[in-house]
Amino acid sequence: MEIFESIRDYLTSPELLQSAWAFFVNLLIALAIFVIGRWVARLLLRTVKKTMTSHDVDPTLISFLGNLIYAVLLAVVILSALSQLGIQTTSILAIFGVAGLAIGLALKDSLANFAAGVMLILFRPFRQGDFVEIGGVSGKVEEIRIFSTRLNTGDNVSITIPNGIIVADTISNYTANDERRIDIVIGVGYDDDLRKARNVIEQVCTRHEGVLQAPAVKIFILDLADSSVNFAVRPWVKTADYWSGRSDILEQCKVELEAAGCSIPYPQQDVHLHQVG
Q1: May I ask the CATH class of domain 126-173?
Q2: Which terminus of the chain, N or C, has fewer Cβ atoms within 10 Å?
C-alpha cells in the first residue's frame, strides 16, 4: 500500500503537474512553429517561383531551386520545433552528419548522379524540349530530374539516363541553335556537263522556300569517286525545317538533274572475260 500511495503522491505532486503543463505548452508552441513555419516556407516557395517565372528563368531551374529552397526551409522549421521541446539540435546535427557520411559512402553512385544533375541545371547543355544525342541515344528531352534525365525517342520510347553518364559522355544538341546546315552529297556521271549539273543544283536550293539566303549555299566538287563526280551541297535552313528541307532538296535535285539530261550513277563494276587458248 505504501508503494501505491507513493506513486499517487508523486503523480499528484505540484512539481510533476508543473513539469507536465510546461511540456504541454512547449509541445503546443512546437506544433505551432511547425505548422506556421511550413506555411511560410510554402508561401516563400510560391513567391520565389513566381519571381523566377516572371524573369523568364528556365522551368527546369525553377523546379530544381524551388525544391532545394523548400527542403532547406523545412529543415530549419523542424530544427526550431525540436529546439522548443528542449531537444539539443546540435546532437541531432552531429548524428545526421555521421549518418550522412555513412549513407554517402553507401550511395556514392546516387550522389554522383545528384552532383551531375546540379551541373546540368547550372550549365544547361540542353533544356527541356531540346532534341539531343547522348551515348548513342537520340530523343527529345522530356524531363531533367535530380538523379536522371528522361528522353523520348522518335518512335515514342521513353528512356531514362543517369545524370552521371550524361555528364561523362558527349552531348550533341541538335536544337540548341536556330539554324542548321544540311550536308548532302549528290553524284553525277563522268560524261555529264558539270557546269550544267551545278547550275541545276543551285537553282533547286535557291528556289526552295526553306533555304536561307544567308549564309549562302555552298556547292563544290567534293570527290572524283569510282562511279561518279560527287558534289557537296550545303544549304542552311531553320532547325525546325531540317529534315523536311533535306528530303525536298534531294528529291528535287534527282528529278531536275534527270530532266536536264544528267545521270545519277550507282556503284557498278565492269567485268571483262578473256579467253585463253
Answers
A1: mainly beta
A2: C
Intervals of CATH 1.10.287.1260 along the chain: 20-106
Partner residues linked to 137 by β-bridges:
134
Q: In the prediction, which pLDDT does 139 show?
A: 94
Cα–Cα distance between 259 and 249 in angstroms, integer?
15
Give ∠ CA 50-56-62 in degrees, rounded to 5.
55
Specify the domain boundaries for CATH 2.30.30.60 within the chain.
126-173
Radius of gyration of the chain (CA): 35
Integer angstrom CA distances of residue 171 from 10, 51, 142, 159: 72, 31, 16, 15
Query: 20-106 architecture in CATH?
Result: Orthogonal Bundle (1.10)
Q: Pick the more confident residue, 7 or 49.
A: 49
Q: Look at residue 202 in the predicted model and tell me its pLDDT.
A: 94
What architecture is domain 179-259?
Answer: 2-Layer Sandwich (3.30)
Between CA 125 and CA 123 the distance in angstroms is 6
Percent of the chain with pLDDT over 70: 76
